[in-house]
Amino acid sequence: MIIDRFHIVQHINRAFNQLQIKIMNQFRTQQSESQKKYRRLKCYWKLL
Fold it and tell me: Per the structure, how many domains does the chain have?
């Protein structure tokens, strides 16, 4: 494994994406108020 700036940023991005997917899955299975949060996260995921 090589440790440099590219790989550190890549690791952070992957970890953030996995966390985002986990949170979005929780919102998807809940009630309508959570559905709005899910849609916002899904729509604006690139901004995060």
Answer: 1
pLDDT digits (tens, 9 = 90+) for 8-39: 999 999 999 899 888 888 877 777 777 777 77
Phi/psi at 2 (5° precision)? -100, 135
Cα separation, 34 vs 2, whole angstroms: 40
Residue 16's domain comprises 5-47
**Cβ neighbours of residue 38 under 8 Å, at least 6 residues apart?**
24, 27, 28
- Cβ proximity of 41 and 21 under 8 Å: no
- CA quadruple 33, 36, 42, 46: dihedral sign: negative
